[in-house]
């Protein structure tokens, strides 16, 4: 079995790993590069022939994991995309939305290009093509082994990161080789997140591909972050401003609504107006409601009491551009939740343009901000940023509530690998910036795990690794036989002690 790391290796976004098993080619994820990664690597070209890919095994619906599937289809992929049921449904709205955003951005760019006498360009894919690509999706339930083809079985386990998100277990049997178990972590969730369960611990694996997004950081306790959000809202409203929350439409938005509902129910927040300005967020919230059977115990308890944790009085969803524009006329007392979470596209840029320069307003980041994105620039302390070609001063109060992140922190990542009953032969680190991966590697190795940082384009031949392991075992057996020859009278305790030392 051969592995090649083609995305989210040496960077955070663009998750994509190529597996060659017998005569089949399988992708683990096929995501878009975003922010700095997109500028450096681009999304237009694949490092393989899409027509030769037989399957995509998809960990979850976030665009940096799924967003190039429509392009894969456009370039000739006609295989199956295998994922959980909730991931399939979320992709059915997220991928067309991604295509729509691309169309709008290209339309804006082409108006400028035409004025400059340049040829127009095309989007990576359209909303319609993205919709058609979702017909390739095949869904399955959590915790059930399925045979993808002879030599590959997969099982999806709850990753606790997003509705439908998965840790993927793969049992791989190649001709004349021993079976190998590979585990792909996908994105591991933060513990105690609203609505969804904590990440599943896996008993065993020979090799692990593992994300390290927050491998160098510890989150604040999530309960403290909830209280901080309430305090920010009250303080901002008191000084006459709005609270703007750039949020991923799928996942973070629903979790923020859950938290706000909780504090409205306990009357710590009263008479507030919350605008969710994202048609995608509205559609995905309905999908969240559909899969209430996979909620955590607390959310299920709220549902059984007759309360919908994702809706409350004062909550308004905006669908049309006209409704969105009306929100920008509100000067104070509004909480605006809008996508995209990294402020790179969508309606959030309009809300930042109207509120970022106002000292009385607050901008609250609740998710990861990739390097090179507008969100990261604001979070890193930029005094001015450019939005729609206009320079905007950053005068609003800026907050980052990392405890609300959907990703496990350093402690959560370490706890997860400690959950293996037998240590994997090697853990292959991906999906993190250089500092995060390096720091987590040091920590994991201090806990006696063997780790390797994977680079973009790097190949990893598990068959060669396994052959070396077998050869090493043969050499140890020879040494053991030599030891037995040296013992005249076998002392059981002495023999066991020698065997233990040789096989370590």
From TrEMBL:
Domain Beta-Casp: 253-378
Limits of the Metallo-beta-lactamase domain: 13-248
Superkingdom as given in the UniProt entry: Bacteria
Keyword Chaperone annotated: no
Keywords assigned by UniProt, alphabetized: Hydrolase
PANTHER family: CLEAVAGE AND POLYADENYLATION SPECIFICITY FACTOR FAMILY MEMBER, INTEGRATOR COMPLEX SUBUNIT 11
Name of the protein described by the UniProt record: MBL fold metallo-hydrolase
Biological source species: Clostridium rhizosphaerae
